[in-house]
Design a protein that fits this description.
Layout (H helix, E strand, L loop, with lengths): L3 E10 L8 E8 L2 E6 L6 E6 L4 E4 L1 E3 L22 E6 L14 H11 L4 H7 L7 H10 L5 E4 L1 E2 H9 L1 H6 L5 H16 L4 E4 L26 H14 L3 E4 L6 H15 L3 E6 L6 H17 L3 E5 L6 E3 L11 H6 L4 H9 L4 H6 L13 E4 L13 H8 L3 H11 L5 E4 L6 H8 L4 E3 L16 H12 L5 H15 L16 E4 L5 E2 L3 E6 L3 E5 L2 E2 L1 E6 L2 E5 L2 E2 L18 H6 L1
Parallel strand pairs: 1-4, 1-5, 6-7, 7-8, 9-10, 10-11, 11-12, 12-13, 13-17
Antiparallel strand pairs: 1-2, 2-3, 5-18, 14-16, 15-16, 18-23, 19-22, 20-21, 23-24, 24-25
Helix pairs in contact: 4-6, 6-7, 7-8, 13-14
Length: 577
């Protein structure tokens, strides 16, 4: 009988610890790395040839919204296609527990805009066999998974559960008794296995303004009081466990940074700040954030940045697009039914305000947006034209040029825009800070216009191979070990004897990202945009191959990692390791 279940043989091992690479073999028993070194093939039941390949730990993504998709997509794609083996869900304070039965519809409606998840898919794909957060985790645990799942406790459902929807969205300050009940729910949720708590705390208007509820109102966490956040931080301090994920608070950088430092200090736990993004025309923004992160590190305050390192563009229509909410006039004009939005966008009395408040924080220069999918016969002439060129040819203001096409096409015009972070020198400033995480994939969200889940492959191809900004050793530490540590997954993110066998085997020289495509694989007859990867020979999760030659094997060894840990391993695996 073979000693090991699987042997990965002959690869170049980059173990995630930033130690120098070495050529070696990795033996796996009962889902655990049992031996590393030179291992004869006959000792294993199955041998995976890694000659000419990089062998590295699976990637860990701290920012996803697979809270719903995990129930209909065991692979949590597109993340799994790009080497991610563990995802953290419940980001930004958004989730589906605790949620009373009568509030289920409302909770799903919120996610249709703030994270742009199709309502039909949520209705058809979610079992809703829970009310409390512990019951939700039990449901996730029962669900077949080809991905490891780590949960945040989202704060928005707690606020709604205790204060009621109306008061939560009005930003009423909780009473002492209400704070105590919220902390009880948070403790109960942490007891069940959460890695910490999360909250979107964005300003309601202005650059970087909030992603809003389906009706254009703030999300409860956007109007949550700092005092409430401090109470949640105290829970982590009492437990000496977990971390926090949050954003800016009011739009006042100094006040926001002081508050986030206070959260980290009061809790004694790490805080992940979203998001560190380079703006090609405003480099002072990311430079000030980096300087703040360095000051925190010098003081020993554990605040980490989450960097937007992908240049995945946006393909969108006005049917689904929700990232103009920074401008009140645009926010108000793009909520409601399709007919209501068409009426507002065509209303000449609204156009002056829309022209005055041109969005630019997410997409960059408005004039650079390209028409890629005109619909009406009169719109066909503008195929592949920028809005700026159309405005020049028609003598219209760029906003009128765009919206006249949108109205003629019944909101179905497809546009494409590159994000405003294309400068490599600015990207390198973010990459050069070793404590800024890569990612903000938003996996499971914005599925009709964003494919940022490709970021790990993009990191290896663009940042490492093409531009040499990082070594592979440093890249794998940033993509695997550092986020695993923050998530409390202390035995993952590195290839060490005794660690769960979440392992990548890939062809570094030929790794690539495929062009965007539309697939109709969502429940409720919905569709999404995806980008696949080429070059992953094997991806293993808990010792089982989930991807082989870039194709799913349809096995489901993923686990819910309560407190960052998977199921207890067998005695034989422990002894072998």
């Amino acid at each position: 009988m073979a000693e090991f279940d699987t042997l990965i043989k002959g690869g170049m091992v980059i173990d995630g610890s930033r130690s120098p690479r070495y050529r070696g073999d990795i033996a796996i028993k009962d889902g655990v790395i049992a031996e590393i070194g030179h291992i004869e093939a006959h000792r294993a039941a199955k041998v995976l040839d890694a000659d000419g390949m990089i062998v590295a730990p699976g990637f860990v993504d701290l920012h996803t919204h697979y809270d719903a998709q995990v129930f209909w997509d065991p692979y949590c794609s597109i993340s799994s296609w790009h080497g991610i083996t563990t995802v953290v869900i419940g980001n930004c304070g958004f989730g589906f527990a605790p949620v009373a039965p009568e509030a289920r519809e409302r909770s799903m409606l919120s996610m249709t805009r703030v994270e742009a998840i199709p309502l039909a898919s949520m209705k058809a794909g979610m079992p809703w066999d829970w009310e409390t957060f512990p019951e939700y985790l039990d449901s996730v645990e029962r669900t077949p998974k080809a991905m490891n799942i780590v949960p945040y406790v989202p704060i928005s459902p707690i606020l709604i559960s205790v204060l009621g929807l109306e008061d939560a969205k009005a930003g009423r300050l909780p009473t002492d008794a209400e704070h105590a009940e919220m902390c009880r729910i948070l403790n109960e949720s942490m007891d069940a296995g959460a890695c910490g708590w999360s909250a979107q705390r964005l300003p309601i208007t202005g650059p970087g303004g909030a992603q809003l509820d389906y009706d254009g109102t703030p999300m409860p966490t956007d109007v949550m009081h700092n005092e409430t956040a401090i109470e949640f931080a105290k829970v982590l301090r009492q437990r000496n466990a977990g971390h926090m994920q949050t954003t800016m608070v009011t739009g006042d950088p100094q006040a926001d940074q002081a508050h986030m430092e206070e959260l980290a200090t009061v809790s004694g736990r790490p805080l992940v700040f979203n998001v560190v993004q380079a703006q090609d025309t405003m480099p002072h923004i990311h430079r000030k954030v980096i300087a703040w992160l360095e000051r925190c590190r010098a003081k020993g305050t554990r605040v980490y940045g989450q960097g937007l390192t992908t240049d995945a563009g946006f393909s969108f229509t006005f049917v689904d697009w929700n990232l103009f909410d920074e401008c009140p006039a645009w926010r108000e004009a793009t909520v409601g039914t399709r007919d209501e939005r068409l009426a507002k966008l065509s209303d000449p009395e609204r156009r002056p305000a829309l022209r005055e408040q041109i969005p630019g924080f997410v997409l960059g220069p408005f004039e650079n947006i390209v028409v890629t999918g005109p619909v009406a016969p009169e719109s066909q002439q503008w195929l592949d034209h920028t809005i700026g060129l159309i405005a020049e040819k028609t003598g219209k203001h760029p906003v009128d040029a765009m919206l006249d096409i949108v109205v003629a096409d019944g909101l179905d015009t497809e546009f494409f825009s590159m994000p405003p972070n294309s400068r490599l020198d600015y990207l390198k400033e973010i990459v050069d800070n070793p404590y800024i995480l890569f990612g903000v994939s938003d996996g499971g969200a914005h599925t009709k216009f964003l494919t940022a889940g490709r970021y790990p492959t993009e990191t290896l191809v663009k940042i490492v191979r093409e531009h040499g900004m990082l070594s592979l050793e440093d890249a794998h530490w940033r993509l695997s070990s550092l986020p695993a540590q923050l998530a409390g997954c202390n035995d993952r993110g590195t290839l060490m004897v005794g660690s769960p066998a979440d392992i990548l085997v890939y062809d570094f020289e030929n790794l690539s990202i495929t062009p965007p495509e539309v697939v109709h694989d969502m429940p409720g007859n919905e569709w999404r945009r995806v980008q696949r990867a080429k070059g992953y020979r094997y991806i293993l999760i808990n010792g089982e191959v989930t991807i082989e030659n870039d194709e799913q094997t349809n096995v489901f060894p993923g686990e819910l990692l309560r407190h960052g840990r998977g199921r207890p391993r067998t005695q034989s695996a422990i002894a072998a390791a």
